[in-house]
Design a protein that fits this description.
seven-stranded antiparallel sheet, Immunoglobulin-like, Jelly Rolls, alpha+beta, VPA0735-like fold, five-stranded antiparallel sheet, 20 strands, 470 residues
């Protein structure tokens, strides 16, 4: 059985609303809150199951091993909405319940790289990147919440809040001619157990780590499949996932607040403990919580001149459970703003939705390009009926314009005007053409290692202007 993330999502949020339950209003409200709290955990569980257990997944991977994507996203990339076309990506699911895992990133010079660690709650709890570690990052030793001891010398300790961790890596591709070299570099980024690291160092330096009598067994991905058709599965699977690790005081207190629902991490949900009326109330509460998440995901963020800006606590959500859940629904595994700021454009200066039936201009004034220390790009996507967005075929195979796009033409005063339209513009404007799809479209500005002006909201994207004629 294969359960894609979109299938699981549909099963959870598309259940027909029940008649309003009059029984146990407190249970209904607790179930609503529990659904919002557990939804990101459920999404992470489903993503992990599909990546590591689902036998129908041709790219199924082992735990504590990288899966490298060696090509850039293009119109064939349909696994996630608004795919990133600037970087080569690597993914790994870590199981830290038995032993630590080492991340070894070789010297990379000035290349932008980022390896972000996400816990089961979708918080980015650590990042190894050029911004933080420069071009020669030290080895990282990632340990679970119960691990005790000291790391070897010259090794940085990273303590994970949960035993299950999603590791997402990026290497910036500023020139398509670098793809082969960067694909080789991907393979030199290592994930190692202590014994694997010991064997490699014996071969390389004749230096031994501390010995042990027997290595722990290799972790096996054998989690049960989620059951999205079951309206109570978010509670059952959420508790199963939370039982994998010691919880923080904050999360223990949160679970305790759900005590009337008889939820306990690591224990099976027993619905027989409730009457028919109580089960109805719990089900209605879950459905309302999922509806609240869906509504929050479609609610406009901070929007100025048609551009939407994320909240400052994106990626480290704290107690903002609804924002955490809405982000898990639309952009699971999103980067923290200090590494990457994404600004989404969906409307023109007059608030009208962007569509390929019109032609537009976007002008960055002199000294008004996105303020970054690494790189910026502006990508264009075709927006689908369900709200997702993907690259699309166009005559020049251009899916984004960036600071490294060859041949861009600036005005005499230094301003940069981009032409967003279906048909190629005339003359020198062709160099600055960003081809548009036939229908609804979406723009995404990505700023890697953004400066303070972007992080603090002082920089604003210029408005997209619609021409008077298509």
């Amino acid at each position: 059985m294969r359960i894609g993330r979109r299938t699981a999502l549909t099963g959870l949020i598309a259940t027909p609303a029940l008649a309003q339950a009059q029984d146990s209003p407190s249970l209904r409200e607790l179930a609503r809150r529990a659904a919002i709290y557990l939804f990101p955990i459920y999404e992470m569980y489903c993503a992990r199951w599909q990546a590591t257990v689902d036998e129908a997944n041709p790219a199924r991977q082992k735990l504590n091993r990288f899966r490298h994507v060696t090509t850039l996203a293009d119109p064939r990339t349909r696994t996630v909405s608004m795919p990133n076309g600037d970087t080569l990506q690597s993914f790994a699911w870590l199981d830290l319940s038995n032993e630590p895992v080492f991340l070894i990133v070789p010297p990379v010079g000035d290349l932008y790289y980022s390896y972000a660690f996400l816990d089961l709650f979708t918080d980015t709890f650590a990042t190894v990147s050029h911004r933080l570690n420069g071009g020669r990052p030290p080895p990282q030793m990632i340990v679970g919440p119960s691990w005790k001891g000291d790391p070897p010398g010259e090794v940085a300790l990273v303590r994970a809040p949960t035993n299950s961790v999603w590791l997402r890596g990026r290497l910036l591709v500023s020139d398509s001619g670098e793809l082969d070299r960067l694909a080789i570099l991907q393979t030199r980024v290592l994930l190692e157990t202590p014994d694997m690291r010991n064997e490699r160092r014996i071969l390389e330096t004749r230096e031994l780590m501390r010995q042990r009598t027997q290595a722990p067994p290799e972790p096996t991905a054998d989690w049960p499949a989620p059951q999205p058709a079951d309206p109570f599965d978010i509670l059952a699977t959420g508790m199963r996932a939370l039982g994998e690790s010691l919880l923080s005081d904050r999360d223990r207190n949160q679970i305790q607040a759900f005590a009337p629902l008889k939820l306990a991490p690591g224990r099976k949900l027993d619905l027989r403990a409730f009457s028919d009326g109580e089960r109805r109330a719990i089900r209605v509460g879950i459905e309302q919580g999922l509806a609240d998440i869906r509504a929050a995901a479609t609610r406009p963020a901070r929007t100025v001149d048609g551009w939407s800006y994320a909240e400052a606590h994106l990626g480290n959500f704290g107690d903002d459970h609804l924002y955490r859940a809405a982000t898990a629904l639309t952009n699971l595994g999103v980067s923290e703003p200090a590494e990457l700021v994404s600004i989404v454009g969906s409307a023109d200066a007059a608030g009208r939705p962007l569509a390929g039936g019109h032609s537009y201009t976007l002008t960055f004034p002199a000294n008004g390009l996105p303020p970054v220390r690494a790189f910026w790009s502006l990508a264009i996507y075709e927006r689908m009926a369900d709200g997702r967005a993907f690259f699309f075929d166009n005559p020049i195979a251009r899916y984004a314009i960036s600071e490294n796009t060859a041949g861009l033409v600036h005005a005499a005063d230094g301003a940069l005007t981009l032409y967003i339209q279906r048909q190629p513009p005339a003359g020198h404007r062709m160099a600055n053409w960003l081809p548009a799809p036939a229908g609804p479209l979406r723009l995404v500005l990505r700023a890697y290692e953004p400066d303070a002006a972007l992080l603090e909201g002082r920089y604003r994207m210029p408005p997209v202007l619609r021409n008077s004629s298509p």
